[in-house]
C-alpha cells in the first residue's frame, strides 16, 4: 500500500551497491544461512551497540527490519529509531513487522551514500550483513555519511563477514556472497580511521564467520 508519508518509496534508488529485492524469502534465507543462529547474532549486535533508553538509532541496510525492531525494543518508547534500505520491498516488509508488533519505527527507502538525515542526528548507527554488498568507493562514502549523521560521541557498529580461514568457512561464506575471500569487516577499520572515527575496535562474533568493527565520532 502506498504510504503518503514516504511518496518516493515505490521507486528503486540508483546505487552502485548490490540491492536485494526478494523480501518475501529474505528471513528464511538468513535463518538457513546462519544455521539458526540469527536470533543470537542479532542479540549480540544490540548488546555490542550498548543502546540506551531514549537513544536515536539508525539501522543502515535494515532489510526486513529484524535488527531494527530489536533496537527499538532496547531504545524504548522514548527512543527514535529509523531503518533505511535501498529495496522498497524490504521497507514494505519491515513496516509490516513493526505494525504487527505495535512498534513506532520510521522505515524509509534510502541509500547509505546519501543518508536522508541532518548532521549529528543519531546516538547509534547499526549495519549488519550489508557492507559486503558495497564496492570499495561506496564503503568509504557510506562511512563518511554515517560519520556525518552521528552525534559527537555517537557510535557505529558494523557486523559483517570475516575472511574465511577454514574450508567450512569458505563454503559457508560462498553461500552468502560471491568472491567471499575478498571481504573482511576488519578491512573497514583503516577507512574508519581516515574518516575520523575514534575508539575503533574489532572482534569476532560467537559465529566465527562474522566479526564486528566499531568506532565513535569524537566529541
Description:
With 219 residues, the protein is α/β, with parallel strands linked by helices. It has a single domain (23-216), classed as 3-Layer(aba) Sandwich (Rossmann fold). Helices cover 36% and strands 22% of the residues. It has 7 helices and 7 strands, in the order H-H-E-H-E-H-E-E-H-E-H-H-E-E. The protein has helices at 23-33, 38-49, 66-75, 88-101, 136-149, 167-176, 188-195; strands at residues 56-60, 80-85, 106-109, 122-128, 150-161, 198-204, 210-216. Strands 3-2-1-4-5-7-6 form a 7-stranded mixed sheet, with helices on both faces. A hairpin with a 5-residue loop joins strand 6 and strand 7 (210-216). Residues 1-5 have low confidence and may be disordered.
Question: How many domains make up the 3D coordinates?
Answer: 1
What is the CA-CA span between the terminal residues? 42 Å
- In CATH, the homologous superfamily goes by the name Vaccinia Virus protein VP39
Which architecture name does CATH use?
3-Layer(aba) Sandwich
Short summary of the structure?
The protein has seven helices and seven strands; from the N terminus they run ααβαβαββαβααββ. α2 crosses α3.
Summarize the helices and strands and which ones pair or pack.
Blueprint: H1 23-33, H2 38-49, E1 56-60, H3 66-75, E2 80-85, H4 88-101, E3 106-109, E4 122-128, H5 136-149, E5 150-161, H6 167-176, H7 188-195, E6 198-204, E7 210-216
Parallel strand pairs: 1-2, 1-4, 2-3, 4-5
Antiparallel strand pairs: 5-7, 6-7
Helix pairs in contact: 2-3, 5-7
